[in-house]
Amino acid sequence: MEVTELTITAVGSEGQGIGNLPSGKTCFVPGVFPGEVCTVQIESETSKYAVAGVKELIKASPDRISPFVPSDEVSGGLPFACLSYEAQLKIKQTRVRDCLIRIGGFDPAFVDGVMKPILASDDPSRYRNHMQYAIRDGRIGLIVAKSDEIGSYDGKLIEYEIFGKIKDTVEEVFGRAPTRLFDGLVLRGSLRTNEILAELTSSSSQTHEVVIRDAKQYIASTGLNDAVRKTCEKDGFNLNGLLFRISPNKVSKRTRTGVRTIIEGVDYYDEIFCGRKFRIKAGSFFQVNTSQAEKLANKASEACGGVSVIYDLYCGCGTLGLAVKKKGQSLFGIEVVPEAVASAKINRSLALSQDEASECEFICKDVLKADFGSLIKSGKIKAPGCVIVDPPRKGLDIGVVKKIMELGAPSVCYISCDPATLARDLKMLAREYEIREVTPADLFPNAAHVECVVLMLRKNT
Questions:
Q1: Most-buried pick from 25, 59, 379, 384 (CB within 10 A)?
Q2: Nearest-angstrom CA–CA distance, 227 and 302
Q3: Same domain as 327, residue 252
Q4: Residue 72 confidence (pLDDT)
């Protein structure tokens, strides 16, 4: 295919460079950044855009801090690892602004008036409390995008140091006792409680009883559990539990569900978040960057000050609502996953005093199907003073947006992990609510993702 010189002018949502081909067509190029000039070779093309790979980097950006490496050699989902941290923050701030203008349709002057500086990470390295590694032929690592191969990555950029040591320990066991029983290793833990949870995974479609039997026999005969425990103890950590999970399809892999067995210990670890104790169970959602998530919670608490009733929609295991709730405030959390609701009720007891815990209620129901009007009318719950919503990446269903507006809470706090769906939803919410602040937050240094906290007030309040 023809090689073309390209000037990179922007960054895409997945961190890839964007430039225009001589024909004017938009071209996406992984591994390069605005201001850089490179020769590229088209790899795929549609009527609207093209995707290309870099043949040679002709001019490097002054923000580049390490040499260019082809994207098909690097894993970990860290497209900004070659950029200075200041440049990363600028790109993420710009992306949020552009989405609000381009997708939300907001006036640039208005956006500039409500946007706050991005909440930078105090330490952009070793920030992840949750790592999902792949296992291939005895090697443990991270998969290169759009492949099934393990690539190279710099562990210092992403994982807790203890995770790297556990990974090396398990890999050493595989080296002396080769096996194809496992295809993944999940590590979660806290640097505040020094507790670790390790989980080996399999996608086997064989009878569960057989797979679990074989896994237990392998772990016992090789001493893998003892090796992991000793590695943890050497660095002052406690191995709370070693688990085994069978996730035979894409959905169970993505949702971290399936058949889970405790090999040793328990299926949770404890974390200290916003000064309160929480229990994080295997498979449950918890923000991967603990200290940065606290900044999100602190910003969200600004919307809850002075109100008597808080609604936490998509509450998960309750960490956000329980973190922002103050004594005397009632908290109503709603979540569709039964296991998450059960965890929220446990966390209610761990995080709060008995009196405060009695002020919190969690129910298992789809937010979209919840009849808040009937619940309020029956006296089961009170009308909200503030609604906190922290939806998945796809954002809010239009029906949920309508429910929020019908509830008519004086204030709304929207926490988003995708600026594009956030902008779309704010366009609708702005009919009833005035956007007061939009604060980006960097929970994923070196990655392309950016979180946001939006504070809104009802227009007639």
A1: 384
A2: 46
A3: no
A4: 65
- Give CA–CA dist 406/433, Å, rounded: 12
Question: What pLDDT does 105 receive?
Answer: 96
Instruction: Kindly state whether residues 307 and 425 are assigned to the same domain.
Output: yes
Q: How many CB atoms lie within 10 A of CB 226?
A: 15
Shared domain check, 368 and 268: no
Please give the pLDDT value at position 259: 86
What is the pLDDT averaged over residues 23-42? Answer: 93
Domain assignment of residue 342, given as a range: 288-458
Q: For residue 309, what are its two tokens?
A: 């009733």
Please give the model's pTM, rounded to 2 decimal places: 0.92
E strand intervals along 228-348: 238-246, 259-265, 268-273, 276-281, 309-313, 330-335
Tokens representing 399 are 């029906």
Amino acid identity for residue 175 in this structure: G
Same domain, 390 and 260: no
Residue 297 has pLDDT above 80, yes or no: yes
d(CA 62, CA 65): 8
Task: Please report whether residue 93 resides in a domain.
Answer: no
Name the phi and psi angles at 145, rounded to 5: -55, 140
CA 426 to chain centre: 21
Tokens standing for 317?
A: 């295991």
